[in-house]
Design goal:
Two copies of one chain form a homodimer.
Chain A lengths: L9 H7 L7 H20 L4 H17 L6 H8 L2 H10 L41 E10 L10 E5 L20 E5 L5 E7 L4 E2 L5 H8 L5 E2 L2 E7 L6 E7 L18 E2 L2 E2 L8 E4 L2 E3 L10
Parallel strand pairs in A: 1-11, 1-12, 8-9
Antiparallel strand pairs in A: 1-4, 2-3, 2-7, 5-6, 7-8, 10-11
Helix pairs in contact in A: 1-2, 4-6
Protein name (chains A, B): Intradiol ring-cleavage dioxygenases domain-containing protein
Keywords (chains A, B): Dioxygenase, Iron, Metal-binding, Oxidoreductase
GO molecular function, one term (chains A, B): ferric iron binding
């Protein structure tokens, strides 16, 4: 194995130090993690000073994180890790014509205490500028196509200034987010903002790493959605505006072709000039999809 | 390259997203880091929930860290990373008979504001139990063997309760640490405590990872030393008590054979029943050692 000039037994010794009571899955994950982290250090001839710079970034990420911000998650996002574990977790063929709705990353701005709203409500309580959208659709069983009644659809999006409400002291609490239940036809609906692109925050380690990598920090405009129904696999996803200039170089690598949508003009509605019809397909817990 | 069933271009796309202004060394390190982190995730089929557990550990480490504690560093230490980058950085043959003093990891309990003391002073200001040691030796040029006059020797060690003074509200400030200057013969000397083994703190993520890996948390008894002299490579090391029961399974993998010492009985000194003579060999900045 060892083709380097460092102690050839070191990595194996660290791995072997795990005792017999280590949970099996933890042993598997740590064995691979230790091997890859050590290989990374040897491959790059990582110095003590460089490693310490990394430790400081990691600690800084933790210190910036609280119930409103998760900078450790964002650091992973800018190197594509959240998108990758999302792909791994779901292992679904995403581009085929008829598949369940593809997944996308949760991102750091979800709130577990999102407020219930009524179908047809407006989540836009406090926004400067922007375009209004009437978004609606059905939640259906991916296999039978039957509508799912009383399914939960949760959505959140950033405001036109690029900030989610919990990042922004100027926004009303729970602005631009809501939790809806499908009606007896499996329908959900709400008024929301046509999403706008925004940059990953530049004041923390994730922004600093992006800058050092000379990468553009913007995320393409998107609406976050989580849909759940008893007996079905919960779905976490994002849908993207087909007109967005950052679709091809999302700073966190979350775009999938099947999640790109067209907002179309809506006539005769004083509340919204645009419309989006979007059906969400959930997979039953026992359902097998494309061999997954 | 890709022998897995996930998007074969994903990792290359993340790496290729780095722009032309990326500093060369940063590109090199990030390319390897991204590749290994992605391979690790694919190899273990890492799920979103497992990854999020890791993010929470990372953020927790940062939140526990301050100017007195570095938990991110400790997390690296328990998977051997600090010892490995120490080996990489110094690339010296450590076990040969006549080499400069071997290096060892800094650890999280160094204080940059350590107090100057006089040769012959006692760093033990406030300790319950334990054995006293008179430690002394010379700082010399590794190549010419000439003594180095006015070299700095900094030392720190844990108390008998396993805590460094900054971890322990009960200990006097700067207990068990001191900064010394060698005299005109290159000699340093002080009274200190024969070190005792202690466990890595169990109240943070590093302790939790150790417990999950079913590993013993103790570090073998050691004294930390940093020696510096203008025009010479600074040396950071630890010396270990040959009688310690944890020499073979240090929880942070820092022990090297050449750093294991014998404390010998000392006669006729009311201040100390043990003695340790220990010479420190520094390498001139331009000096070539074993081809390094």
């Amino acid at each position: 194995m060892a083709t380097h000039r460092f102690d050839p037994d070191f990595t194996d010794n660290v791995i072997k130090s795990m005792g017999p009571q280590t949970p099996e899955r933890f042993r598997e994950v740590m064995t691979s993690l230790i091997r890859h982290v050590h290989d990374f250090a040897r491959e790059t001839n990582l110095t003590v000073d460089e490693w310490m710079t990394g430790v400081k970034m990691m600690n800084w990420a933790g210190q910036m994180s609280d119930d409103k911000r998760n900078e450790g998650q964002l650091l992973c996002d800018v190197i594509g890790l959240e998108s990758l574990v999302d792909e791994i977790t779901h292992k679904l063929a995403q581009e085929a014509e008829d598949t369940p709705t593809a997944t996308a990353i949760l991102g750091p701005f979800f709130r577990p205490d999102t407020k219930w709203r009524q179908n047809g409500d407006n989540v836009v309580q406090d926004v400067k500028g922007g375009e209004m959208v009437f978004m609606h659709g059905r939640v259906v069983d991916f296999v039978t196509k039957k509508p799912l009644v009383n399914a939960t659809v949760e959505m959140w999006e950033a405001s036109t200034n690029g900030l989610y409400e919990q990042q922004d002291p100027e926004q009303v609490e729970h602005n631009l987010r809501g939790k809806f239940r499908t009606d007896e036809e499996g329908m959900y609906s709400y008024y929301c903002l046509r999403p706008t692109p925004y940059p990953v925050p530049g004041d923390g380690p994730a922004g600093k790493v992006l800058k050092l990598m000379d990468r553009q920090p913007f995320r393409p405009a998107h609406i976050h959605i989580i849909a759940t129904y008893d007996g079905y696999k919960p779905l976490t996803t994002q849908i993207f505006d087909s007109k967005d200039p950052y679709l091809a170089n999302d700073s966190v690598f979350a775009v999938k072709d099947s999640l790109v949508v067209d907002f179309v003009p809506r006539e005769g509605d004083p509340q919204a000039g645009l419309e989006l019809e979007y059906d969400i397909k959930l997979v039953p817990n026992e359902g097998k999809v494309n061999g997954a």
